[in-house]
Amino acid sequence: MSQEPLEKMMFQLTLRRRGISDQAVLRTMEEVPREAFVAAGDRSHAYRDSALGIACGQTISQPFVVAYMTEQLQLQKHYKVLEIGTGSGYQAAVLSRLCAHVLTIERYRTLADTARDRLEALGYFNIEVMLGDGFQIPPGAGDFDRIIVTAAMEQIPEKLLERLLPGGILIAPVGPHHGSQTLVRVTRTDSGFERKELVDVRFVPALPGIAREL
Ligand code: SAH
Prior knowledge:
Number of helices: 6
Strand order of the largest sheet: 5-4-3-6-7-8-9
Structural class: alpha/beta
Bound molecules: S-adenosyl-L-homocysteine
CATH class: Alpha Beta
Order of helices and strands: HHEEHEHEHEEHEEE
């Protein structure tokens, strides 16, 4: 399934040109085989810098956005990371190479099951895929060094910010469900939360509850 070296070279160049400079992030983007996460019919487009459709009417994010959000998280090897919106599992795979453990939550059973099988088959053993609602993280899951939301939220729930450990960072697309959102980075400081707006993005909506459809 390996892609043309030229395509992968262009993929790296695009990420660098768009401003990704963290070497560990660039290396990880090179190592994680995006073609294994897209629909079978899209494999030849896997290294284009665009979002692609997956099952359940959802999308695998654009590679630049995956790299950018990952870079903004400033991951360290011992961190525990929460992702809301597993989708294909691609973002979780990228995160998992740069931290200790990833818990990723998805509201569609089909997507959660497919991503779990795929990640296991590819040898990503530090990722737990959970069927659930990212607005209702089970208390038993503990708190996190980093939280990444990969679906658009109209606002960031207070409850979610409270799951950040001291010094923790959350990054989420915030804005209307249809249209574009702003990527927001929230840092938990000693005195509260510091919020910074980054770039405009477009994500599918974060919806409450486990999906009734498969
Ligand atoms: N990170 C994914 C892309 C995410 S697309 C990847 O790398 O492929 C957004 C995903 O968020 C969709 O699969 C959608 O079903 C899921 N989602 C939306 N609302 C959610 C919620 N409340 N809890 C968990 N997942 C949610």
